[in-house]
Amino acid sequence: MPTRPDPVLGRWVAVCCAALAAAACSEGAGGGGGRVEVVATTYPLQYVVERVGGEHVAVEGPVGTGGDGHRVELTPRRVGRLGEADLVVHVSGLQASTDAALEQHGSGHVVDAADVAGLAGAPGRPPGEEGSAALDPHFWLDPVRLAAVADQVADELTQVDPGHADDHAAASDALQADLGALDAAYREGLAGCRGRTLVTSHEAFGYLAERYGLVQVGIAGLDPAVEPSPARLRDVVEVVEGRNVRTVFFEVSTGPGLTRALADDLGLRTGVLDPVERVPASGGDYLSTMRANLRALQEGLDCVPAGG
């Protein structure tokens, strides 16, 4: 006579099967279909991870594509993602809420670009002029510094995902070549500029200026939300008049504002630069945006083409 199935045993088997199925679904690095799950807190870092990781990574980029990247407030879901990600790539000191979340919840693998890139307080300033005590986070405007971070990201991805180490190495080499070519283009393109003083709406371009022999003078400081004092404006006017500056640059994300007013008062031209803090609205990427910046600098600083 056949035995009747035990209902308790049946429920226990069902629970076990469900647990095994869930484990099978989450097996492997990350939960993004077997891909490594990465959180990158700024667009240039997202670009690096996507280039180096390729199809093997699922990247969650910055919070939104607009707003002020210096003043990000994390949602509970975003805080949870920082703790769950296989790899977090960030810039300590740029977003206080991200720093606090990482300190509280941690993550297995973290690349802090601030350490790798060697951030400084006031790169590219005129000699003798003191800068803010805060570290300038905009290292990615120097392709050489970004290349160092890309190398560290490749190493960390290889540790997280050793099965695709060869792919990560090849992709990293390709990115290093592109950044090297970008560096060479800047060196050549800015070598013959009549103007060497870079007057900007806020001090985001210090590393670029330092790398290529320019001097940055910011109308505002590192934080674009802080209005410049009357004394600072007088200092900028003295620099403009004393160094025969012909162009002042404002940022594509903030518009001309005070920069245009200053230019109109002093009879100067205006140029547009992109600090590459956010996903480019033009649909380009880091490389194309940096090339556009180079063209704007060459025009605004009256650069003579090589051999011209």
TrEMBL record:
Residues 1-21 form the signal peptide. It comes from the Bacteria. The keyword Cell membrane does not apply. Gene3D superfamilies: Nitrogenase molybdenum iron protein domain. Keywords: Signal, Transport. The keyword Signal applies. GO terms for biological process: cell adhesion; metal ion transport. InterPro entries: AdhesinB, Bact_metal-bind_prot9, ZnuA-like. GO terms for molecular function: metal ion binding. Belongs to the bacterial solute-binding protein 9 family. This is Periplasmic solute binding protein. It comes from Geodermatophilus obscurus (strain ATCC 25078 / DSM 43160 / JCM 3152 / CCUG 61914 / KCC A-0152 / KCTC 9177 / NBRC 13315 / NRRL B-3577 / G-20).
